[in-house]
Amino acid sequence: MTAYVFPGQGAQFVGMGHELYDQHPTAQQLFDRANEILGFPITDIMFHGTDEQLKQTAVTQPAVFLHSVISALCLGRQFRPAMVAGHSLGEFSALTAAGCLAFEDGLRLVSARASAMQKACEITKGGMAAIVALPEVLPASAIEDICSKVSTGEALVIPANYNCPGQLVISGHIAAVEAACQLCKEAGAKRALVLPVSGAFHSPLMQPAQEELAAAIAATDFHTPQCPVYQNVDGKAHTNPEEIKDNLLRQLTSPVRWTDTVLSMLEAGATDFIECGPGKALQGMIAKTGKGREGITLSHV
Known about the structure:
The chain is of the alpha/beta class. It has helices at residues 18-23, 25-38, 42-48, 51-55, 57-73, 90-97, 103-123, 140-150, 174-186, 207-218, 241-251, 258-267, 281-289, and strands at residues 2-6, 83-86, 126-132, 157-164, 167-173, 191-194, 229-230, 237-238, 272-275, 297-300. The strands form two sheets. The protein has a six-stranded mixed β-sheet, sandwiched between helices. A four-stranded antiparallel β-sheet has the order 4-5-3-6.
């Protein structure tokens, strides 16, 4: 069974999507339409801009969404997934590729999400860090305990991305993130690296963004997807549009349970994982999560 997966923010690079634009008439039409919807030439930034321009949240999220969705749609008749999933922002790409959201609606929602998250970042400064550790040395439960220990008063830090065994991202107030990193190193983590991001994504610090995104979601038509969508908040399959909408909103302040998502897809029979979009980070995560299982294939478009 074939599963399509879609990356999130952080997968971007200058030049992304240019080859698609040059080779596929459908891609040209969708990229040109995106420029109209967003009101600025996002293709110019994607194809010829600078790293700094592409790192701006208002640009990054629509850019990754566009590259991912257009990559999937340009597969034409080959795009027949048994299931889909997306990491964080990638969930919007997955829903659009699976027909739950129209292309224009998906792009508008992603743009609204980026704007709401940027405003939340300006209200409360936060950060994130990647913790890399052998599961037998420092399991996820131990990192959760460290975060709980550090979180006192207004200093909050929580697990934000359960990416794969041995890789977990934490999120919260900068001082709390740094303190948790130090404790993780002392507990045996191979690395505890503060990430170059503008805020504490997938944590309660994103609460101010929920009201704005809730209004955008409520104003958007959601349809039953053509296949199950495995969502970040619980790692489970969903097809009910109302459940999907609620989970998208909860995703802002909840951890991305990517390990559970991949395990659920494997249990449902997924054997071929195709990553749609920039970068190949999800392939590495899936390989580590499915380690020891036979017959898993990984590819990228």
